[in-house]
Amino acid sequence: xxxxxxxxxxxxxxxxxxxxxxxxxxxxxxxxxxxxxxxxxxxxxxxxxxxxxxxxxxxxxxxxxxxxxxxxxxxxxxxxxxxxxxxxxxxxxxxxxxxxxxxxxxxxxxxxxxxxxxxxxxxxxxxxxxxxxxxxxxxxxxxxxxxxxxxxxxxxxxxxxxxxxxxxxxxxxxxxxxxxxxxxxxxxxxxxxxxxxxxxxxxxxxxxxxxxxxxxxxxxxxxxxxxxxxxxxxxxxxxxxxxxxxxxxxx
Amino acid sequence: xxxxxxxxxxxxxxxxxxxxxxxxxxxxxxxxxxxxxxxxxxxxxxxxxxxxxxxxxxxxxxxxxxxxxxxxxxxxxxxxxxxxxxxxxxxxxxxxxxxxxxxxxxxxxxxxxxxxxxxxxxxxxxxxxxxxxxxxxxxxxxxxxxxxxxxxxxxxxxxxxxxxxxxxxxxxxxxxxxxxxxxxxxxxxxxxxxxxxxxxxxxxxxxxxxxxxxxxxxxxxxxxxxxxxxxxxxxxxxxxxxxxxxxxxxx
Lengths: 251, 251
What we know:
Chain A is of the alpha/beta class and 251 residues long. Chain A is built from 10 helices and 6 strands; from the N terminus they run E-H-E-H-H-E-H-E-H-E-H-E-H-H-H-H. The first copy, chain A, folds into 2 domains: 2-160, Alpha/beta knot, CATH 3.40.1280.10; 175-241, Helicase, Ruva Protein, domain 3 (Orthogonal Bundle), CATH 1.10.8. At the A-B interface, helix 1 and helix 7 of A face helix 1 and helix 7 of B.
């Protein structure tokens, strides 16, 4: 679906922003960039900001104006931060994302961004079948062009569901395994005199709370069992070598 | 809640990125920026990219390292794009957002970003109580620093629910009003001979489908009624001035 989503920059002013938009698009799985009504004034700056997305930059096309840029698109979504009579029916990128992705399965869809200083003008807004407003603070609502494209591209990328988070390689430990770990800890904590037998059940509630507040994986349980065993080994070794516990050992 | 969220840039390299991060923060209602282990090498470039967010730039503090930057924070969330044994338990900014906001009601929370080239190192990762992975394309997963901050700040801003979209000033029209509009259109379309009376019910289904596919506000209905009335006025006027319809009038 994302291949059918076109980013249109209308009359962009700063070449660095065009390059930054290329990087943003590559980050979010987009590749179709059209510049409407203005080209790249400073190719060096554009390449610098495109960073590893030079293929998007080199493939981008320039056309005379917005009408030509969206002529082969069905849904045309304009981003606007300004308000006004014909800019009321705005929704957020997150709200539009499902409709955009559905349309992108049947035809080409354009996300249209205006120039850095004034945004889309009224005749450009008229070409848009939908308007989109990016949530931002009223104290400073104006986003950099590439950041505006990022929010919209990111929302589409997430909604497309193509991102698979890094797999948790160690599964959550089973209760029986955790119980063996707690039994080891209880024996160890008694052995080192951290708690009296009469208080063991009570103290172990605190220990359990600490270790089970988050998720405990098999790896985590293995580490915790290893710590308890090592403490016991050390204590046992000391007992063998120094029959009289309590002797000063450098302390 | 957003006032208690700190952005920490660890060993940032490019002053332009620091400035761009300031703008991103102002856009998303954040203001507490700390630079850990490196300062602003090029203040002119930083100010240029900060644009209207110079107050965030001027208020930012520089400290020796990450430990100092997060010393007064409870939750410390590190952003990482790399994978590895101790980077498995990553979640996305959207998944962490509710926990971050909850923690920000009780104490200070830090979102930590590494340097542009290599990200956070293992000793910095160790200071983080949570890790965060921004969804991105495996083909080019590396985001520009300010864009990474934008995604995280945006997710917090949206989750905080402080953004109120521009209000729809004209309410959805009531059915009775729409029906008056359709009655006007039917009369007009009959009058201009667009449809025969026998086909009127059928044709009006098509007209209804077009006009009700989306939402129709009171304003929209008023415009559509005005069009129908104006056509009728024009037709009636022509009938009066030219009793014999069908005469060529420049066609």
